[in-house]
Amino acid sequence: MPLRCVLSSGVLSLLLIGIQGAIVVGSSRGDTGIVPPIYRYDDFKMCRQINSPGVFCYVRIVLESKDDPIDTSSKIVASYRRNQLDWGMCVADCQREVALLDERERQRLFQPKIEVNFTYFLHMEVIRDQLNEYNSKYGKLINICVNNRLERDHQVYQHGYSQIEHCVTNDPLVVRSEFDWLTVVFVAITVTLVGTVLGATAIEWLGSSQSKDHVIVSAFSVRRNWTRFIEVNKSESYKDFGYIDGLRVFVNIYVLSVHCFMVYGAVPSSNPEFIEGLLQYRSILNFGATAPITVQIFFVISGMLLMVNYLKDIEHKPQIGFDYFRTKIANRWVRLLPVYHFFLLMTVVGHALPGLELGPIGYTALITERNVCRERGWENMLFVSNLPFSLVPCFLQGWYLGAEQQLFLGAMLVLALIWKYPRSIKPILVALLVISNVVTLGIIYKLRLEPVLPTKLSEMKLLFSFEKWFVQIYQPSYTNANSYISGLITGYLYHEAKRGRLSLDESKLYSVLRRVTVPLTAIGLLLPCLFYEHGFTRASFTVLLFTFIYRNYGALALCMCFIYCFRTRPGLIRRFLASRLMTTLGKLSYSVYVLHVPLLRLMLNYAPSILETSLTSIGLLLLRLTILSYIFGLVVYFVLEQPMYLVLKHYLLERSSGKAKKVT
């Protein structure tokens, strides 16, 4: 299937989404809103300026509800829970309101804890003492205040139980306590990196020839890194696969668009009914269901390039040893760890960053993730945050890096096995592909899960931390192994076809796959909405069959595109993707992927109030995020990614192996 066919299908899908989105805008203007409001925030700025100590609390409220369709329906229900509210409360306002009530009225309005069958609050040890203090001071007050407002302002006489999540204050002692040793470490690392870049660049311009050749100067010099940045790779394999760097740019932008859409379902909004309205339309539901394709694309690319490079290496040096695999793994860690751990540390520091002023939705944007990362950040450091035992995500996008790292290590074991038994490469890869699909289908069957990614606003508030499909299917490495193995197979086919040892035109299997790729892709793209509209028996044959298609169509289509590309001359699209502009931007893909979520959180923190959702606001957020991500990605490339890779590679890999060479 030609690459232009896939891109044309994507453009058509986006056009359909735009048309139906416009219809949604027109139909949502007359909406009276959701009662009681899912989000209600007092004036954050006024509360903290006028009152002393200006305490503002973020509160989760639950009301009793029986037979909620979100829990009981066999369909996927995309809406918010009507019995879970997120309110921001000014304590001073509540004190004034409750003071007007007599003791009998206060007792009537107070609601003891309500037991519900869903998770609405994150219990974390790192903030337990803090929460106990908040609840002892303000818990009963806010409980009464919430129920008074439900009756007075919204004519809702069903009382809710209030759980304080966090409170912010103007108290200088509390503010000062947020600045701890981790903040000092982050500031010290940042200053050191920037200072080294400035110093190395100055020496490059003014220093002696001997000092210019020092590894630190060479690695951190802006001029030399600019040369590396715009340099064109001349290798033979890059001529065949250079367009992949351009493809990465567009896939990255798609990832950013998905996360921008998620923002309006996860953070406080003045009109949450708008996002619910969007999810009434098939095209939007199908668009949301394509999110796993981005994961499949990245895994296929990684697997294919790994196999291509491995086969090329053993062709040039057949007698490789285990040092080859050790070096490959170490080189990968040297490339990935500095940027990843720097932004992980930045997330742990959170709102204590020097000069950062907390905004109205700063708790949702910054503090929640900061608390989670302080408790569970070790999972990210070990690249295991994607596994099912890690229920609460720290560093949202880190799950992919964990899964990719696990698949890479697994693939290295497979390559070592192939190196040991080279004639068994075909049965090994086919067996692994079958096993990976059986494992996924087995989990779907046993846990009676949905066959497609369920876009549920009720789960988006906690970033799908407790959504079983995300935890058990979307994130684990073993349920994504089919894509990585498909990439390995494609890389093997490329190597064999290039050397004239394989004629795909004579393969019946290849002929069949060519015929079924487009129909299967159409099914995978167009039918997910049916599982929102109709109830299907979980663990049925229909569900398992669609699961198999849904979890493979993206990888199959991409592999067939890659096979088509290496068998034909580049057309207009491939030439554009392989252009100097796109391949240069492609070098920023890793930095942009890692930094865009912390950047998005900072942008949300500075929002003047809770967000108002519209297609325009989503589009503008995506535009700003894309531009800023690539600007800061360029800075990170020059200050952190490229310099630290060169320095660590020199001192840890080349020196330890006795092959240290001059860094140019």
From TrEMBL:
Coiled-coil region: none
InterPro entries associated with the record: Acyl_transf_3_dom (IPR002656), O2_lipid_transport_reg (IPR052728)
Molecular functions per Gene Ontology: acyltransferase activity, transferring groups other than amino-acyl groups
Pfam families named among the record's database cross-references: Acyl_transf_3
All copies of domain Acyltransferase, residue ranges: 242-633
Protein origin, superkingdom: Eukaryota
PANTHER family xref list: ACYLTRANSFERASE 3 DOMAIN-CONTAINING PROTEIN-RELATED, O-ACYLTRANSFERASE
This protein's name: Acyltransferase 3 domain-containing protein
Taxonomic source organism: Aedes aegypti
Gene: 5565290
